[in-house]
């Protein structure tokens, strides 16, 4: 385990959703953030959730060995960012860890960005590991595409979003999950979000994309460019007037789903 200087760490957790069954669970990236915080010795840890305190999935975080979990009791539809900002300022946090994005709800992934902006702190997205901490500087490894890593040094206080490439979180044990305490914190006020004025409707099916030919050699590219398309029950149309031709084209576009 890494032995950093004394840090006041706040980990923000949310209620996740199982990708297959849709059941509530601890969010995977948030659990990795808790695991990363537990690996930092000699640090004061606060695990914080903004929302409803009666969610059973929150006890899965307690099952990782936490003695207490704080819940900012907010009504449904309230903006969590102002309440989190006030709580983080009052707790004197030096380091805030979050997941990249939630597994349920809006799941926009903007929360850590908004927190860093309103707190005036530095922000590093998609962190895979924390290497060291000394003299108010934090050295982290940032996850890049195709398994690559980039070393980043950031000045405390800061906000980090933890990527799925971070170490796997420990299993949640039933006994500690039941013995752990959930402390409910009542914020001064709840700010409604613009979501109340949104109009939600089912997404429309997108038009079909044209098939792209993937050719590696010049011969394959030449063959693909000169090959005749296979006929599948089409018809040759020789319109007598421009109106007949336009009507045939419009009918084809509607059948292919390009126009509705």
UniProtKB/TrEMBL annotation:
SUPFAM superfamilies cross-referenced by the UniProt entry: Adenine nucleotide alpha hydrolases-like
Gene3D superfamilies: HUPs (3.40.50.620)
Lineage top rank: taxon: Bacteria
UniProt entry keywords in alphabetical sequence: Electron transport, Transport
InterPro entries in the record: ETF_a/b_N (IPR014730), ETF_b (IPR012255), Rossmann-like_a/b/a_fold (IPR014729)
Residue span, Electron transfer flavoprotein alpha/beta-subunit N-terminal domain: 30-186
Family, per entry: Belongs to the ETF beta-subunit/FixA family.
UniProt protein name: Electron transfer flavoprotein subunit beta
């Amino acid at each position: 385990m890494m032995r950093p200087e004394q840090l006041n760490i706040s980990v923000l957790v949310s209620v996740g959703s199982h990708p297959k069954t849709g059941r509530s669970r601890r969010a995977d990236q948030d659990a990795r953030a808790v695991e990363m915080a537990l690996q930092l010795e000699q640090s004061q840890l606060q695990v914080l959730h903004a929302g409803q305190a009666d969610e059973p999935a929150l006890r899965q975080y307690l099952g990782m060995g936490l003695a207490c979990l704080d819940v900012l009791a907010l009504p449904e539809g309230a903006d969590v960012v102002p309440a989190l900002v006030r709580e983080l300022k009052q707790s004197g946090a030096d380091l805030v860890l979050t997941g990249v994005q939630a597994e349920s709800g809006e799941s926009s992934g903007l929360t850590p960005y908004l927190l860093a902006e309103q707190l005036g702190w530095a922000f590093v997205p998609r962190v895979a590991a924390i290497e060291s901490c000394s003299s108010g500087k934090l050295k982290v490894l940032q996850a890049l595409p195709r398994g690559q890593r980039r070393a980043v040094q950031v000045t405390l206080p800061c906000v980090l979003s933890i990527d799925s490439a971070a170490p796997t979180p420990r299993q949640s044990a039933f006994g500690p999950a039941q013995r752990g305490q959930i402390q409910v914190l009542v914020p001064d006020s709840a700010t409604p979000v613009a979501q109340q004025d949104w109009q939600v409707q089912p997404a429309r099916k997108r038009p079909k994309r044209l098939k792209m030919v993937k050719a590696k050699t010049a011969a394959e590219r030449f063959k693909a460019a000169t090959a005749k398309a296979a006929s599948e029950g089409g018809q040759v149309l020789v319109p007598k007037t421009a109106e007949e031709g336009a009507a045939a084209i419009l009918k084809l576009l509607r059948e292919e789903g390009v126009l509705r």
